[in-house]
Amino acid sequence: MTPVLESQGLGKKYGRRWALRDCTVEIPAGRVVALVGPNGAGKSTFLKLAAGQLAPTSGGITVLGGRPADGPAQLAKIGFVAQDTPVYPRLTVAEHLRLGAGLNPGWDAALAGRRVERLGLDPKQRAGGLSGGQRAQLALTMGLAKRPRLLLLDEPVASLDPLARREFLQGLMEAVVEYELSVVLSSHLLSDLERACDHLIVLTGSHVRVAGEVERLLDTHHRLSGPRRDPGRLPADQHVITARHADRQSTVIVRADGPILDPSWSVSRLTLEDLVLAYMEQRTDEPARTISLEGRR
């Protein structure tokens, strides 16, 4: 199956600073992808490159079989909701929907109308008078009614309270199933991502550090605890991600290509948050070596 998004050596430079560098990833169709990393890691730049809002400085990116900004037909396949759930405060809900219909040839007015009614949004209400959760839902409605095949969401729930986040993500998951969408979702809220996403990309220091199916990544990463030792002496098939040492004990997170056979180690499973934080703790002044487990079994 053709990947919904594929990049090779993708990079974007602003002046002398690389916001994203040597990014090579492949995202299968039908996935909900968590794009995570610290501020300044390159998440928004990656999404804008995928949406066709920016041109690469180096490398290339293919989205749904074409270049992101390669004409109206290609742009129509991609929905993008930028940071801060962008809506127009002076426009009413109904005016937003009319604007969407005028800008998008594939606009699904019935879909937009059903969502507005189900969400209890007043069509006459100006967006500036909506709550944060309602504005986020309106922005999502605009993105969905375009009927894209790939939906890109940049920190859409960052400013929402827990209830509004849950409602937003529930609506997103329903739409993924109903409309067979692929989604790339950037967020710092790992607990929300753990419930919603089945694929992961971690960006730090403008590089991709790890990418792959969430369950596969969790199955191949382990926390090892035991008597203090040099991590460099671990077997060759145990790749150290992070290591911490007390006086007599070492705690090491590894990616293992096979079972952990050393009985002196206590082995425990990582959560998604553990996995992400381990890669975020890696030194960013060292060259990145992207780890991708997609397709391995």
TrEMBL record:
SUPFAM superfamilies linked to this entry: P-loop containing nucleoside triphosphate hydrolases (SSF52540)
* Keywords recorded for this protein, A-Z: ATP-binding, Nucleotide-binding, Transport
Q: What GO molecular functions are on record for this protein?
A: ATP binding; ATP hydrolysis activity
Q: Which Gene3D superfamilies match?
A: P-loop containing nucleotide triphosphate hydrolases (3.40.50.300)
Read off the InterPro entries from this record: AAA+_ATPase (IPR003593), ABC_transporter-like_ATP-bd (IPR003439), ABC_Transporter_VariousFunc (IPR051782), P-loop_NTPase (IPR027417)
Give the domain of life. Answer: Bacteria
Task: Answer yes or no on keyword ATP-binding.
Answer: yes
Name the UniProt record assigns to this protein:
ABC transporter ATP-binding protein
| SMART domains for this protein | AAA
The residues covered by the ABC transporter domain are: 5-230
